[in-house]
Design goal:
single chain, 92 residues, alpha+beta, Glutaredoxin, four-stranded mixed sheet
Length: 92
């Protein structure tokens, strides 16, 4: 089962991570678990969302990005490239 960790620490929270978390929770299915997390160490790129076990990191996620992540990544298995964290997913 996939897990979606949504940072709720100080910097991410100040950038709206609570609404991102609520958006994931409102649309949760039995296929994945949404988990509010502590700091994931990417404060300058928040709100941060991390999908496990894929180890896919998303940065600067907004509530309106959640349906795209849910459909394209969690249901179809393709990460949303425009939201990938550049530190973990550099473009060549």
């Amino acid at each position: 089962m996939k897990q979606v960790l949504v940072c709720q620490y100080i910097s991410c929270s100040a950038n709206g991570s609570r609404k991102v978390l609520e958006s994931f929770q409102a649309n949760q299915t039995p296929d994945f678990e949404v988990i509010p997390s502590e700091c994931q160490g990417q404060c300058n790129m928040g709100p941060t969302v991390r999908v496990l076990p894929d180890e896919t990191w998303y940065s600067r996620v907004k509530p309106e990005d959640v349906p795209e992540i849910m459909q394209q990544h969690l249901k179809d298995g393709e990460p949303v490239e425009r939201l990938l964290h550049p530190r973990f997913h550099p473009r060549w």
